[in-house]
Design a protein that fits this description.
about 270 residues, alpha/beta, Rossmann fold, globular, binds 2'-monophosphoadenosine-5'-diphosphate
Length: about 270
C-alpha cells in the first residue's frame, strides 16, 4: 500500500516541503506521496481524527499550528516541549506522536557545512530570542556548548535562558562587540537579513579569524551578515541547509529510508528562492 505523508498549515501554498520530500520519494523509488493540506485552525481537531484512522504515516506541521497540535498529540517528545513547537508528526497504530526536528536541522546543517565545528568549541553567540532561537539553544545545549544570548528585548532573552537547560548567559545587545572575541560560533536567529538589513553596531572585526558564522535566514541565501563575514575571511554556513536537514528525520520515520541532503537537492530548492 502506498505510504502517505503531508504538511499542514494555513495557508500552505508557500511551503517548500512538498518539493523536498517529492524529490526524495522519486530518488528512492518509493511508492508514496507527500501532499500539502490547508487546515484552518478550527478544523485541526477533525484533522487529528482523520490521522488516527491510519490514512497517513505522518507529516509536517507549519504556521499557525506548531503550538496548537501539542494538546492534540497522544505524546510529545520532551525536546519538542522545551522548544515549544511541534513540526513533525508520526502516526503509529492510531497514536500521534509530536516531535521537533528543527534543532536536528541546525546541527545537521553545521555538521555538513563545517565538519567538526562543535569539537572543542568554547562558546557560541546567539542573536535573537524567538522561536527559532529556542531550537538552536536546545541544539547547542545537546553538544554542551556554552552560549551568550543577546536580544533586542533583554527580558525575552532572560525568560528564554531560564527555560532552557544549558549554559546560557544573557548579555546586553550593546555588548555584542565585547562578547565577539570570546566565541567560536556566531548565530543569527532573527529576521534581520531577510530584507538586506544588517546589525549596524556589530563589528565583525571583533570575531576571531577562526570563527564560524551562520544565519537561519535563507532568502536571500547570502545575507548581509554572511557576506560581511565571508569578506573578512570567516567561515560561513547559510541557512538553507537547516530547512533541508530538518526534513530528514520525518522522511526516515514515515518512509523507512534516511535521505541525503545532496548538492543537487540544494540547487533545486535554491532555484525556488
Ligand atoms: P521566530 O519565531 O521566527 O524566531 P520571532 O519570534 O518573531 O521569530 O523572533 C524574532 C527575533 O528576532 C526576536 O528575538 C526579535 O527581537 P525582540 O525579542 O526584541 O522582538 C528579533 N528581531 C526581529 N527584528 C529585529 C530587529 N529589527 N532588530 C533586532 N532584533 C530583531
Amino acid at each position: 500500500m502506498s505510504t502517505k505523508a503531508f504538511v499542514i498549515g494555513h495557508p500552505i501554498a508557500h511551503s517548500r516541503s512538498p518539493l523536498i520530500h517529492g524529490l526524495w520519494l522519486r530518488e528512492h523509488g518509493i511508492d508514496g506521496s507527500y501532499e500539502p493540506i490547508d487546515v484552518a485552525p478550527e478544523d485541526l481537531g477533525r484533522f487529528f481524527d482523520r490521522l488516527r484512522t491510519g490514512e497517513f504515516a505522518g507529516g509536517n506541521v507549519t504556521i499557525p499550528h506548531k503550538e496548537a497540535v501539542f494538546d492534540l498529540c497522544d505524546d510529545v517528545d520532551p525536546l519538542a516541549r522545551t522548544i515549544g513547537a511541534v513540526n513533525t508528526l508520526v502516526v503509529d497504530q492510531g497514536r500521534v506522536s509530536g516531535r521537533n526536528t528543527d534543532y536536528l536541522g541546525f546541527l545537521g546543517n553545521l555538521d555538513a557545512g563545517a565538519p567538526g565545528w562543535s569539537e572543542g568549541l568554547d562558546a557560541a553567540l546567539v542573536i535573537g530570542a524567538g522561536g527559532a532561537s529556542r531550537a538552536i539553544l536546545v541544539a547547542l545545549a545537546s553538544r554542551n556548548i556554552p552560549v551568550v544570548l543577546v536580544n533586542r528585548t533583554r527580558e525575552t532573552a532572560d525568560r528564554l535562558a531560564a527555560e532552557i537547560e544549558g549554559q546560557i548567559t544573557v548579555a546586553p545587545m550593546d555588548s555584542i562587540n565585547e562578547v565577539a572575541p570570546h566565541v567560536g560560533l556566531c548565530v543569527n536567529t532573527t529576521s534581520i537579513g531577510m530584507h538586506g538589513t544588517r546589525f549596524e553596531t556589530f563589528d565583525l572585526a571583533r570575531l576571531r579569524p577562526d570563527a564560524l558564522v551562520t544565519d537561519i535566514v535563507y532568502a536571500p541565501l547570502v545575507t548581509p551578515l554572511l557576506a560581511d563575514a565571508a569578506a573578512r575571511g570567516l567561515r560561513t554556513v547559510d541557512g538553507l541547509g537547516m530547512l533541508l536537514h530538518q526534513a530528514v528525520p520525518g522522511f526516515a520515520a514515515w518512509f523507512g529510508v534516511t535521505p541525503s541532503v545532496t548538492p543537487d537537492l540544494r540547487r533545486r530548492i535554491e532555484a525556488t528562492l
